[in-house]
Amino acid sequence: MSTCIVGWAHTPFGKLPDEDVESLITQVSRQALADAQIEGADVDEVVLGTFNEGFSPQGFPASLILQSDDALRFKPAVRVENACATGSAAIHHGLRAIESGAARIVLVVGVEKMTALPGEDIAKTLLKAAYLKEEGDIRGGFAGVFARICDLYYQQFGEQTDALAHIAAKNHANGVHNPLAQIRKDLGYEFCRSLSDKNPVVVGNLKRTDCSLVSDGAAALVLADEETARQMERAVRFRATSQVSDFLPMSKRDIVRFEGCTRAWHQALQRADVTLDDLSFVETHDCFTIAELIEYEAMGLTAPGQGFRALKEGWVYPGGKLPVNLSGGLKSKGHPVGATGVSMHVLSAMQLTGTAPSEVQVKNPKLAGIYNMGGAAVASYVSILEPLV
């Protein structure tokens, strides 16, 4: 028997000065329980995903979920972390609890409060997801890590500024229709392609429009075993999942190949007994536009060095053969680190239940693919979701 998503909640992402980690957690926890039409007493376990690493002064946050409903008191609660894939790590923890028989219903929450820190401190905090012994002095923090990846990609396959601008423009155009997105503005290809006062170089070949956003926000899911899910009003089933971890130092890998991403996709598709062509859409981890470009290749949509073809042929746009990041992605929606993986699953569940915004709602979607990445392709999580019928 499989595990299903039976309820969800999602705050807007952005700069939320009136919210802290506690208020974000309790807000989505209550809303997700209400969405699933269950009470806290029905939950067997709670899991919190948050990167933190200095973003918030509050440590030991798992039990803050209990403050959303007194009936959650004395339930097992744990916090998990796996860099930018923290949200998916929390979901996997919940899946294992159900699949082992230890739980029937699990509440999973992902959260991050990033914007309270000065910009320099945000960069230092994010860089902790890199291998500091070798990468700690890279100019530009974590953006500098991906600028180095971008430089190496250009050296191997040629300059791809046009492709990166098309990715940024696509995701911002999609984000216009997502009421939860941090930036709901169609910036256009020319703006994303050109240097300007409003789109300056961040580091190397990456401009501001190539970089995901600093965000606050939270998302939550209610997971249930299939037997329980069939009694619910709606449910989305995990057809398959996969997690792959690679070396942390970039020096130990061919960093432009994202081999962990490739393996995770291969494992998940094999377990689901489907191919990439069977997917209705994909939500992928566009922390930087160069990451989305390489992910096209890593998932098998194109050959290495040919990711630009997915854009040139229109495959990844709404209405294409495999729309990518209809939510706007991290580029437009925002990237509160611990919440991102949960957000991807929430927005995919909305697509599969026909409740996404009409402008980007896929017609009769059958299967969703999700790729959530921690670090520079170090932690790779893939989920294949389908409506429970």
List the helices and strands and how they pair.
Layout: E1 3-10, H1 21-36, E2 45-49, E3 77-80, H2 86-99, E4 105-113, H3 119-127, H4 132-135, H5 141-157, H6 161-175, H7 189-193, E5 201-203, E6 206-207, E7 216-225, H8 226-229, E8 236-245, H9 259-272, E9 281-283, H10 289-298, H11 308-312, H12 329-333, H13 340-352, E10 368-374, E11 379-387
Parallel strand pairs: 2-3, 2-4, 9-10
Antiparallel strand pairs: 1-7, 1-8, 4-7, 5-6, 8-11, 10-11
Helix pairs in contact: 2-13, 6-10
Domain Thiolase C-terminal: 251-386
InterPro entries: Thiolase, Thiolase-like, Thiolase_C_2, Thiolase_N
Domain Thiolase N-terminal: 4-182
Protein architecture, described:
By secondary structure, the protein is α/β, with parallel strands linked by helices. The protein has 13 helices and 11 strands. It has a domain of 131 residues: Peroxisomal Thiolase, Chain A, domain 1. A 9-stranded mixed β-sheet has the order 3-2-4-7-1-8-11-10-9. Strand 10 and strand 11 form a beta hairpin. Helix 2 packs across helix 13 and helix 6 crosses helix 10.
In which order are the strands of the major sheet placed? 3-2-4-7-1-8-11-10-9
Termini separation comes to: 13 Å
Radius of gyration: 19 Å
User: What top-tier CATH class of the domain at 3-117 and 214-229 fits best?
Assistant: Alpha Beta
Low-confidence stretches: none
Q: How would you sum up the global shape?
A: globular
CATH topology of the domain at 3-117 and 214-229: Peroxisomal Thiolase, Chain A, domain 1
The arrangement of helices and strands along the chain is EHEEHEHHHHHEEEHEHEHHHHEE
Query: What's the β-strand tally?
Result: 11
What's the CATH superfamily of the domain at 3-117 and 214-229, by name? Answer: Thiolase/Chalcone synthase
What's the mean pLDDT score? 97
What structural category characterises the helix and strand content? alpha/beta
What is the architecture of the domain at 3-117 and 214-229 at the second tier of CATH? 3-Layer(aba) Sandwich
The percentage helix is 25-40%
Beta percentage is 15-25%
Oligomer: single chain
With helices defined by DSSP (H or I, 4 residues minimum), what is the helix count? 13
Largest sheet: 9 strands, mixed
Organism: Kiloniella laminariae
Domain Thiolase N-terminal: 4-182
Domain Thiolase C-terminal: 251-386
Protein name: Acetyl-CoA acetyltransferase
